[in-house]
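Lab notes, practical 5.
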Amino acid sequence: MNVMITGAAGGLGRALANECGRRGYNMFLTDINEEGLLCIKRGLERQYDVVVAAAACDLTNPESVDKMLDVIDKYGIRFDMLLNIAGLDFEGGFIERDREKLVKIVSLNNAATLRITHAILKRRRPGKPFTIVFVSSLASMFPMPLKATYAASKRFLLDFAVSLRQELKRENVNILTLCPGGMVTTRETLCSIKAQGFWGNVTTNPLESVARNTIDRALSGKCIYVPGILNRVLSFLGKIIPRSWIAAVIYWRWNNAQSKWLNNH
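Output from the prediction step:
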C-alpha cells in the first residue's frame, strides 16, 4: 500500500507514519519542516522494511505543491491512502491575534487541505479502493469563543469530508474524519493542555492509540472517529444543548485557560 502523509514531521504525523511503517506500508511524506521530515524518513527506513520518499513542501503555496507533484509524477507514484494531517492554530482571542496568523489558519487547515486532496485523488491507484483521512477536531462540534477561527476551520473539514464521502462512495473512495480532543504534538500544545487543568487532561488522547485506531477505522469504512469515551459524550451533548449556552460555558473555561497559557509565555 502506498500512503501520502502531510504534516509528517509533527506529532500526529509521526505517529501515523510509524503506524504505517509497522504495517509495512510504503510512504510519501511531506512537511514544511525539511529537517524534521528527513529525520522521520531516516528513522522509518532504519526501523521498518518499507520504501519512504519525502519532499518538503509549503502546502499553502500552489507553486510549492506543483513542484512536489512533479516529483510524484516523474516517478509515476500512485496512492492507496491519503492522510491529511497538516494543520495549525495560534492561541489568543480574535482581536489579540495577528491578522495574517488568523488567515494562515484557514489557508493551511482548509485551502491547502483541499488543494492536496484534489491532487492526490487524481493520482490514486486505478481500480483499487482509496482511503482518505481528514483531521478535524472535537472543537468542530461546538462554537468556540477564543478559538473561533480554528474551530470553524475544523468544522469546515468535518462537513466537507462527510459530503465528499457520499459524493465519492460509488468510486470506491472511503473518507474518515478524525475528531480528537487534545493531543501532545508540540511543546505549545502541552502547555495549553496543562493550562486547562482537569478538562485538558481528561480530554487528551494518546498519539499512538489514536494513530492505530484511525487507520483501523478508515480501512473498515467508518465515517467519523472521536477518540475517548468522554469526548464522545461531549460531542453528543454538543448536538442537543443550545449553541449559545455552549458558547458561554466554553468562553468561561477558555478565558481562564488562555490567560494562564499566555501568562506562561
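Observations recorded by the TA: The first strand starts at residue 2 and ends at 6. Residues 66 and 119 are 9 Å apart (CA to CA).
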